[in-house]
Fold this sequence. Notes:
The protein is of the alpha+beta class. 49% of the residues lie in helices and 19% in strands. It has helices spanning 10-33, 44-65, 75-89, 92-109, 115-132, 141-153, 161-178, 184-189, 194-209, 253-266, 288-298, 309-315, 332-340, 356-365, 381-393, 406-414, 422-434, 475-487, 504-517; strands at residues 243-250, 267-275, 278-285, 300-308, 321-329, 343-347, 368-374, 397-400, 437-443, 448-450, 453-455, 460-464, 467-472, 493-499, 522-529, 535-539. Strands 2-3-1-4-6-5-7-8 form an eight-stranded mixed β-sheet, with helices on both faces. The chain is elongated. 56% of the residues are buried. The model is unreliable at 223-238 and 311-318 (pLDDT under 50).
Amino acid sequence: MPQPPDALDAVAVRTWCSLALDALGRERAAIDAINVYPVADGDTGTNLYLTVESAAAAVEAVFAAHETGSTAPARADAVRAMAHGALIGARGNSGTILAELLRGMAAVLAEAGDAEHLRAALTRAAAAARLAVAHPVEGTVLTVASAAAEAASADGGSDSLKDVLDAAYQGARTALAATPGQLAALGRAGVVDAGGQGLVTVLGALLEAVGGRATRRPVGPAPEDPHLTGDCAEAGPDDGPAFEVIYLLEASDDAVARLRSRLDTLGDSLVVVGGDGLWNVHVHVDDAGAAVEAGVEAGRPYRIRITHFAADRGAAHGDPVQRAVVAVVPGDGLSGLCAEAGATTVLARPGEPPASGELVDAIRRANAREVVLLPNDAQLRHTAAAAAEQARTEGIRVALVPTRAAVQGIAALAVHEPGRSFDEDVVAMTSAAGATRYAELAVAERQSWTMAGICQAGDVLGLIDGDVAVIGEDYSGTARTVLDRMLSAGGELVTLVLGEDVPDALADELGAYVREAYLAVDTVVYRGGHQAAPLLIGVE
């Protein structure tokens, strides 16, 4: 039987991630059930699980790269991979904070993995997490992390990893039990903090990885009749911000400092974690578009996730909302637009279409009995169908509206009415999407044959319903020709979605052209942000 390590090495880090993932997999439903703060959206356990899953996958990738060698990866490589994986995969408020805790620990454990460095790692992690949260509140995972660090530092100076972690784990458990007396929302619900419970589970896995034994007990309610201290106690009101916005951001430290200030004025539950040019941003806001735009001003946001809380608040009382819409969008600007229309969005990054698992996750996040899925891309037909089928096995009624472009999805959302029957709503949305022809502009990368003739590298291509129909020299002329061909068959409304590098002047020019040439046709313009196509066109 292998002996427990005297110092944390790469194998122990790998074991920790594996044990933590297994433990959160067993407990995530129970942790979801006690999630009442800051928003009672019933997803803390799931978010923590997905965050650790990303961390564990990153560590496994490091080990896979060393398969041909005779030695295990270096500890520094393993802990840095763990932290990076958690950062890029962090979900929700709790997952984002856990990512910063792991990042704080990794910064110290990369130097050495002995007991002294472990104490310092826990202390640094707790401090880093508090700095990442705009308005720290006691009675949360932050309190539990601080208690773990303090208990580890007060363990008597033992050189044993097991002793240090046992002290940290017991300190965390004690602090967790006290959370209902510190936070009014927990006290009223009679539960401990869900994020704190998740951290206790992660620390228990680390203790087990170094040869200790974590005391396991079912996740359950808090002790009855907690005595509220009133210190820093805040309740998460049901009428709080409407959206949760999360994205990864490539930006400088100075730009992120300005971003924090901007987002703090837009909403609450602000957590910004990361460093070295890569950040994970989490905030609850009423204006999802403004939160994304603030990220665009700061740097390059991607993997944007916007969740509407209306469904989640219903689920907090064990009662999911009746219906929701999940839409795949090609740019961050449309993420905000569709979210404000009530949709849960999945961002399709240029060259990186979402996998079926991402769509299933979005369907689950929608927290509804009935979901309309808008793939908004002809290439996602099979992926979306697989996601819908998986969700149906979980008891969710899913209707796949075969939208082939984002402008068709916009048309479908425009007629969406949750108040009518599901079947009637799906028929109306499908009809609106089907009545919308779509086009886009693209720039040819090389000489090639197309249905419109031979194009040269740098030519502007106009694609109508997925096929190259126009070859032009610039955006303006090509777009006008595309509009003429589409409107020759009739139309009442033209929708233009501009990419981030396309000037507003092009929209103004095309709008004026439509008004002059087609008197009965209206034009609406949206900013798509960072999207693959410089211009999307829809004609209804």
